[in-house]
Amino acid sequence: MSINVLGGSTTEEKNNKTHLVKTLRSSAIPDSELLDNLGLFLTRQSLSRINFMQELYSKIIQTHGSIMEFGVRWGQNLALFSALRGIHEPFNYNRQIIGFDTFSGFTSVDEKDGESVKAGDYGVSDNWKQTLESILTFHENNSPIAHKKKVHLVEGDATQTLPDYLNCHPETIVALAYFDFDIYQPTKVCLEALLPHLTKGSVVAFDELNCAEFPGETLAVKEVLGLSRYAIKRSQHSPLTSYIIID
Ligand SMILES: C[S@@+](CC[C@H](N)C(=O)[O-])C[C@H]1O[C@@H](n2cnc3c(N)ncnc32)[C@H](O)[C@@H]1O
Prior knowledge:
The protein is an alpha/beta fold. It folds into two domains: 10-41; 47-245, Rossmann fold (3-Layer(aba) Sandwich). It is 38% helix and 15% strand. The protein has a seven-stranded mixed β-sheet, sandwiched between helices. The chain is globular. Bound molecules: S-adenosylmethionine (SAM).
């Protein structure tokens, strides 16, 4: 299986991480204790991202509506949002969490995306969607009101599946949208489709604004929202991620 992603780490950093991964995979920690000790293996960078998701979640607790992620990949953010709901608002079964992805990487890239990426990049392993469904079911079962399914995966090209979803669910209000397609065309199409479903206080977050490796995401935002209409905020702990709050 060949999966292509961009990486910014030095060789030394990669080797150190590989060593930690080997330690995790070969660890003598019993299964019954492994999940409770994952902090051993969290890097500073991973912890920063988790903290950022916590920061975003805390901003929408008073805002009605669903959470959507555009570009799910292995699905960590959906699992985090599900766990964060269990922590912050365990009885808010109205808060749907919906993830959009092809689960086979970029469908195509635009010339506005530059030279760094190509169609098929950022794929996942075969049948990952099924594995992710089972992980997300664990998280739903680990919080109250588990019998109501609140996390949904929508597979396919989101330029088609998001409009289809919104047609089927015209009642949708989106409190938090996390854009992580990395590339121009789906970011632009989905941002446009989403706008009528946002409310005052909705948070729209982006993974790659002002990022030279992925210029397309910023260009899409510039064309749909402009760069000066909303303050583009950042977290002090995370260099790439940013967000706006609809006012
Ligand atoms: C950088 S990854 C997402 C990473 C994930 N959010 C995370 O934090 O681990 C980008 C994802 O966008 C998805 N993607 C790109 N274009 C898409 C499209 N047109 N429709 C659906 N998914 C798409 C890719 O399949 C890939 O999984």
